[in-house]
Design brief:
Blueprint lengths: L2 H4 E2 L1 H7 L7 E4 L3 H4 L8 E2 L18 E4 L4 H12 L5 E4 L2 H8 L8
Parallel strand pairs: 1-5, 2-3, 2-4, 4-5
Length: 109
């Protein structure tokens, strides 16, 4: 699996979120992390709950998986691809990169 084809950078995601049909952001961080910072319209499912909650994910819509730095979300992205979700990508650098490059007012941890 080509890493470039399964990752998206924060600048590209920011542009896509302004489109008519933006990708759905799947935030796989834990609730304590969400309390620090989050994207308002993201779907929040902690990483450990993903297998049991696959039915909540739209397989026909583009998904961008996000965590703190992009490690957990890459694991979830690869898992989802193996489950037949072919429109899923990992957010490189996670919400930390988003806060650093796109939304500097967002708290970081």
């Amino acid at each position: 699996m080509d890493r470039d084809s399964i990752e998206i950078d924060v600048d590209t995601l920011a542009r896509q979120r302004a489109d008519q049909q933006p990708p759905l952001v799947l935030d796989v961080r834990e609730p304590r992390e969400l309390a620090v910072c989050a994207l308002d319209d993201a779907l929040h499912i902690p990483m450990g709950e993903i297998p049991a909650r696959l039915g909540e994910l739209p397989s026909e819509r583009e998904l961008v998986v996000m965590c703190h730095h992009g490690v957990r979300s890459m694991q979830v992205t690869q898992f989802l691809r193996h489950q037949g979700f072919d429109k899923v990508r990992n957010l490189a650098g996670g919400i930390d990169a988003w806060a650093a490059r796109v939304d500097p007012a967002m708290p970081r941890y």
